[in-house]
Amino acid sequence: MVMKGYDPKTNGGQYLEDLATAYWVSDALFTALEMDLFQTIDDFGIRGASLAELAPKLGANESALKRYLALLKSLGLLGQHQNIYYNQLITKEYLLKDSPLYQGDSILWRKNLRDDWNTLKASLSAGGRVNFLPEDISEAELNRRRANYIRAMDNVAKLKAQDCTAFFTELSGAILDVGTGSGAMALAFLEAFPDTKATLLDIKQMLPQTHKLVAATTFSDRVYYHPANILEPEWELTQKYQLIILSNIVHAYAEAENEQVLKTAASHLSDDGIILIHDFFNEHHPVKAHLSDINMFLNTYNGKVFSGAWVIAELEKHDLVTSPLLPLTTDTALIFAARSQSALDHLCFKQDTN
Fold first, then answer.
1. Phi, psi of 178, rounded to the nearest 5 degrees
2. Coiled coil located at which positions (predicted)?
3. Which of 277, 275, 272 has the alpha carbon at shortest distance from 342?
């Protein structure tokens, strides 16, 4: 796999060819989602669908579609029995819209990043981002983009949230989700621990999108919304929190901003509370981490992916004790921080990360 980096025991030329053709795979996946191919097969029910049934439904040439379905089968996304095609388990779990772990919005959002990646050479020359939104973009278009972004991030957060809650055996009291986005991370804790309530903090332009997603759950009566800019030194909060979540926040900013964000977060932590930092880190899945770093370079003002060691050192400046970097089974990892070792000792660190 390209994301694992080069293995010197394998053919180097083949590895380079695989790098050069990696977009073939992503385009094959994007096209299937845009055609609603997996959903269309699911609509035929448990029996699956034949090529003759699928072609008119998808508006595709039957001969061409047969070749494309063979590709999706080789990728493990479809199965075939005689002339019938069906969705594999991975497709049912992640690529059907009714699945709790649906990833389609996240996947298609990544397709939209292509225009930014096409500016890599120009951005390297300029020393920063060169592809910006037009100055006359309407508020309606911005809201559409925010909605697409928050749905994509909701997909991702749901994929990681259960791995995060598994470190806790018990939790009660107030939760603060900083830069909450869809609120999915906080909602996972609300579901796992009934004696909790959550404050979802984000900029005022984003919270209406958050509210729509939370309103569709059974947890809206345990949620408070707090508009604030996390880059400001004061978030205008009036209480301390048992759990403060910073999920995919650190990589959105550079050193100076993160120093301020971590300082402010620490100031709102209760004496026996926990800070949870979930993010990409250079030590874990380094190829994906460095790709994510360049993605931030191309898409943000000054976002970057940090080492876990840097984040831990910053937390310790605020008299916090920390866990080591804790890799998840995915491409991200966790760091926990608290005012005392006894608070960290209540966490369950024996997780299966293989």
1. -85, 125
2. none
3. 272
